[in-house]
Amino acid sequence: PKNKKGIFFTFVATIFLSLLIFSASVGNNYELRQKSFVIETRVDTMNMFMSDVENDIGRAAYIAGFRSLVALVDYIVSTGEYIPDADASFNELFFNGTINGVNSTLLINNTFSDWMTKIEAEATKINLNINFSIKDKIVEYFLEERGYTYYLDNFTIEEENIKSLLVKENFKKD
Fold it and tell me: Is 161 helix (H, G, I), strand (E, B) or coil?
């Protein structure tokens, strides 16, 4: 009789322990899937943002370039002065919005540097650190059949996820 109680107790304890282990593993698996989903969403957000930046950069260069050309013409018409180095003046307008150190009203908040600053600010909103670099800040432009084409030499974008280290740390702890 005592033997039957011992076997029954062992059997109940084994079932209870099995259920406890099973429920703990299901909970951990759910947490792992949840963290995995968060990381996947974060990576997708960064990829979409960088894709949008790559699509938008051409439009930004076109706008800054077109306004720079119009500002050059406006400067010549309004001052009647000859521009000795049109390429240098174009680059100054394109990046700084100035010609001979004087602000052009056509390029207020429309320079390529302004665009880069705006993109960097938008990136920080999603905890992404973007650094634009343009070696020598030289823009070449070519007249084509449908208008001008602007070419930025040595343009690079570096990106870094500000929260990536935190996400990796939290993921490793479990």
Answer: strand
